[in-house]
Amino acid sequence: MKKQLIMGASVAALAALTLTGCSTARSASSSSSSSVSVPKGSTIGVALPAKTSQNWVLAKAAFEASLAKAGFKADVQYAAATNTVPDQQNQISGMVTKGDKAIIIAAQDGSQLGTQVKQAKAAGIPVIAWDRNITGTADVDYYVAFNNYKVGQLQGQALLDGLKAKKASGPYNVELFAGASTDANAPVFFNGAMSVLQPKIDDGTLKVLSGQTTFKQVNTDGWLAQNAQTRMSNILQANYGTATLDGVLSPNDTLGRAIIQANQTAGKTVPVVTGQDSETASIPLIMNGTQYSTIYKDTSVEAQAAVDLVSTLSKGDKPKTVLDKKNNYNGVKTVPAVELTPVLVTKENAVSAYANNPTLEALAKAGQ
Ligand code: BGC
């Protein structure tokens, strides 16, 4: 009975949209959450990007478990490795057409989904950007992610701390890497890191021999390891014939391992490399000192936070969100967000940081 009423309200809101245009529909949906209907038992779409890092691989099972437990059906799809953006666009349109009742999206390219989220909005389907924001549109309803700026700050501070631990005083030679320019997170990570590192570049503590210090110069196309490895090799060849590279800001573990590999191939050791994601391939490297740090962003917790939001909508309640412009402004609006707290992990705290995750905890313990 209640469901019918809610759906009736949704139809009324859509009718208002058709008859009188957006403004009426907007006020209808903001004055009452009953214009959105996400019944228990309905199917929730989850559109994930290409598997460029382990977190995306883990995401499918995490969503399927959380959605099942909350009483929803899961429709989880990955964008293909090639033709990735159109593939994801088609998947999201398909979710709208099929009638998925909410759509959770981790964007391959956050600037290329305006048409699809508009389509969802017109059909009364709430859109939740997950981990990566969707930019240039007012039609994204919520954003669930770790605090990305904080991730960057932790990475920048870890680079400084790691350098100090290896060599008491500078100057230190460092190189900087960032993620893909198509990922709204990548500049936020980089800006967070640079908020810590730029003052140290300015006062001469840090030297960047390549001279490449802007996001435009240091981003890594597609977050692909091969691209970071090639750039690192080229920088070593051009700038580090006799000079020593003391540390590298790497935005995640996959690229960190590629950066380490490039140094090893050149017959060099780089003492401090940062990371992110707590990938199983990087934990042993952290424990044996090859990589200095990573960040723990528990994928299950992040998926659960999005599913909790869906459950809240399902009850007709208003989700608790924050408006955090620095992290979550998408070029059109600050997307109401659920923000989770990332944790910095080094060899020192790895065992305790991974206490809730048997796989990671075992890897940390094995490397002690
Ligand atoms: C995620 C990172 C991940 C990167 C590459 C980012 O959007 O937040 O955790 O390392 O994408 O896949």
UniProtKB/TrEMBL annotation:
Highest taxon above the source species: Bacteria
Localization of this protein: Cell envelope
Span of the signal peptide: 1-28
Coiled coil region boundaries: none
Domain annotation Periplasmic binding protein: ranges: 44-317
InterPro entries with a match to the protein in the record: Bact_Solute-Bind_Prot2 (IPR050555), Peripla_BP_I (IPR028082), SBP_2_dom (IPR025997)
Keywords: Signal
UniProt xrefs under PANTHER family: D-XYLOSE-BINDING PERIPLASMIC PROTEIN
Name of the protein in its database record: Sugar ABC transporter substrate-binding protein
Source organism per UniProt: Frondihabitans cladoniiphilus
Gene name, Swiss-Prot/TrEMBL: chvE_2
